[in-house]
Sequence to fold (385 residues):
Amino acid sequence: MDTSLTRRPALQQPYWPDEMALAEAERELAALPALTTEDEVVDLMRGMALVADGSALVVQGGDCAERFHEAVPELVRQKVDHLQGLAALLRAGSRLPAVAISRIAGQYGKPRSSPFETEDSGRQMPSYCGDAVNDPAFDPVLRVPDPRRLITAYHCSGAVLNELRRSWSGRPIIERVYASHELLLLPYESPLVRGGVRGGYSASTHFGWIGERTRNPGGAHLELAQSVHNPIGVKLGPSTSPQDAVELSRTLNPQGVPGRLAFIARFGAKEVDRLLPPVVEAVAGYGAPVVWLCDPMHGNGLRLAGFKTRLIESMRAEITSFTRILQANGRWPAGLHLELTPDPVTECVSSRSAEPRFTDYRSTCDPRLNPEQSVELVAHFLTLL
Ligand code: PEP
Ligand code: CO
Fold:
């Protein structure tokens, strides 16, 4: 591992009290086999190159936070089949190939707006940062970041990837479901950067993204993304200036490789019309190819009856604005990035329902779309193309 990776400022890293255990976990990860192959990464890059060129679409989606106990074949199959179904819907509605990328096999680390959480009783404890860090239960002891969880994350990801690959059999390369997660936890990601024939690649996933909170220039996360040749994404939120976006394109895709870089816009329905057009215009003017995806989830959060939720109407509105803005700039609105589940949950709601009822709320982090809601948003996106 290139140790310079750890010298840059790294935001959103949990405080690991046991430094020796953390160093031991990093050494162990560095000695474990790659989870993904360079060939798989290159296959996805080919699909993303078609997307960059405007001749294919993308649906990226899955849990906000995966759970370790869900790394079992039956549940993985359900998630993969569900995303496959949404990709089939996109294909049928657009008559174009659709690349399916799940938030799976490594989505175990979460950035948090506050490092601490206060329980109803008033008791404070470290926030839940994903299963790779701590346990979501309201227990101050279980919330202490435990480096052994990074090793468990590796083994769970491996089991999930095996099941994912089983679903590939007999399918053309472009119709496979690929894996993705946020490249957040550096003690996990850095040891899994491996040397390939074409240079370094992230062997923790196929597609990795840098979050809105860790895309700071000169930061450790950008350096990590620069050190790998996987297709990568960057989340762009309301604080993104046109210059920031151009700089990200310059830094992360200096050669202008089609499919290498996706910008995942998550401005929120209220701000997207004002803030996205200058960003798209500047990136288009700069000229390097970028895949534009719409994340209508992360800019539209609100709290209702004590639950974190999102309104379907706001998400529809952001998808409409995103698509229109890209089209107005002669760019391809390449697809959607969603938080979703095959389970019939009630985590996102409609403003039409008189009193939203959260009768089946299971997410340990952000609210996800249930299958009916995911289909509604994908179908809505299709009407705009
Ligand atoms: C996420 O995708 O779960 C996430 C935290 O997104 P963002 O970085 O856009 O807030
Ligand atoms: Co989320």
Summary: The chain has a mean pLDDT of 96.
